[in-house]
Amino acid sequence: MNNSSKAVVSFIVGAAVGVAVGYFLNSDKKDELVDKLKYQADKLKDKLKKKKAEYDNALEHELA
Prior knowledge:
Elements: H1 3-25, H2 30-63
């Protein structure tokens, strides 16, 4: 796939995502979508904090 094909595909995907986000933000389900996104973001943040703590402990153990 050449660069211009990749650019066209990227543009189409980006436009589709933009349309979907715009639709949801203008719909009655906006608050529900925002709550779900916040929940998923919090879960990801907690998971990353846990992984960082595990990594820090493993690194500390290796250096000790």
